[in-house]
């Protein structure tokens, strides 16, 4: 892309304004994944200022939350972080169920936990694979995507959809899983360690990869806290915070002994890579423990609460189920919720994904606000890039794992 002479940048100290240039990095650049745009001010090849552009997807996610009911909105949250959509669903329904005061069944808690951890592994695999690809390591990308296909197969077997499962419902899940899904999960547990080891052998001591990531894009612990970073980005800087441990939800309290929080100290691209690799192993442990201790029983809360969609068998074979289904759909009679404000958050692959709801007593939100981790981390990008070279941009951007659909809401 051609360089253009920039207008004088008054707020850049110590730079000769006559020799500053502006470079549009993306959205066509492969490392920006067709949606992100970075406006770099350069002194030679040194970045003196970086301005991120969140893009123009115009998805209107938050406004749609005011028009769709709580169950319908599942199709929208799927498309926020579209790399691990099931984790988005868990965060949304955790907030709704907190508002209504629903206690999930043990089987539902375990199933949501298993699928959320599979989504975390899938997200981390894409982050590590794509970050390596942006730096020239094609083989790592192929290793990661072979494993991700197995996660998609599990999601498809459980929900009927590979990419956007839309599997959660208020008070439970769309349907229970069968033995085939459990077998697929166990197969993934058996084979994943080898995939993880292959990626480690390829990248952990790779001279080129280390030179491109170590000491690059350093984020101090203090800056990570002050800028509200979360997830692997914050933990790579030494911030010991994970909502699965600090504010347990789903089955994480029962499984707390099965995993630990993975943290780093350096706060650079290499540490963020190591934290994600370590977290995948911890997720593997959670899935292994959960699938082997999967409770029996229903996946949806009791039919008598009149808040959840009845099971198909109940709809077709009992008058109570038929009436409840009729009231929820044909009459558009939705839930009666408290008139309250509530915030709920889950620890997703990129960090704290939170939803802030203002409820007006109906079955849909009066206001729905999202706290997406990518939006926070993209805002930190300019501070991390100052003083680095143009060639460092793909390394830093890849280590942050910015998902564009979480930016323009």
UniProtKB/TrEMBL annotation:
<keyword id="KW-0830">Ubiquinone</keyword>
<dbReference type="InterPro" id="IPR029014">
    <property type="entry name" value="NiFe-Hase_large"/>
</dbReference>
<dbReference type="GO" id="GO:0051287">
    <property type="term" value="F:NAD binding"/>
</dbReference>
<keyword id="KW-0472">Membrane</keyword>
<protein>
    <recommendedName>
        <fullName>NADH-quinone oxidoreductase subunit D</fullName>
        <ecNumber>7.1.1.-</ecNumber>
    </recommendedName>
</protein>
<dbReference type="GO" id="GO:0050136">
    <property type="term" value="F:NADH dehydrogenase (quinone) (non-electrogenic) activity"/>
</dbReference>
<keyword id="KW-1278">Translocase</keyword>
<dbReference type="GO" id="GO:0048038">
    <property type="term" value="F:quinone binding"/>
</dbReference>
<dbReference type="InterPro" id="IPR022885">
    <property type="entry name" value="NDH1_su_D/H"/>
</dbReference>
<dbReference type="Pfam" id="PF00346">
    <property type="entry name" value="Complex1_49kDa"/>
</dbReference>
<keyword id="KW-0813">Transport</keyword>
<dbReference type="InterPro" id="IPR001135">
    <property type="entry name" value="NADH_Q_OxRdtase_suD"/>
</dbReference>
<comment type="function">
    <text>NDH-1 shuttles electrons from NADH, via FMN and iron-sulfur (Fe-S) centers, to quinones in the respiratory chain. The immediate electron acceptor for the enzyme in this species is believed to be ubiquinone. Couples the redox reaction to proton translocation (for every two electrons transferred, four hydrogen ions are translocated across the cytoplasmic membrane), and thus conserves the redox energy in a proton gradient.</text>
</comment>
<dbReference type="GO" id="GO:0005886">
    <property type="term" value="C:plasma membrane"/>
</dbReference>
<keyword id="KW-0874">Quinone</keyword>
<comment type="subunit">
    <text>NDH-1 is composed of 14 different subunits. Subunits NuoB, C, D, E, F, and G constitute the peripheral sector of the complex.</text>
</comment>
<comment type="similarity">
    <text>Belongs to the complex I 49 kDa subunit family.</text>
</comment>
<keyword id="KW-0520">NAD</keyword>
<keyword id="KW-1003">Cell membrane</keyword>
<feature type="domain" description="NADH-quinone oxidoreductase subunit D">
    <location>
        <begin position="134"/>
        <end position="409"/>
    </location>
</feature>
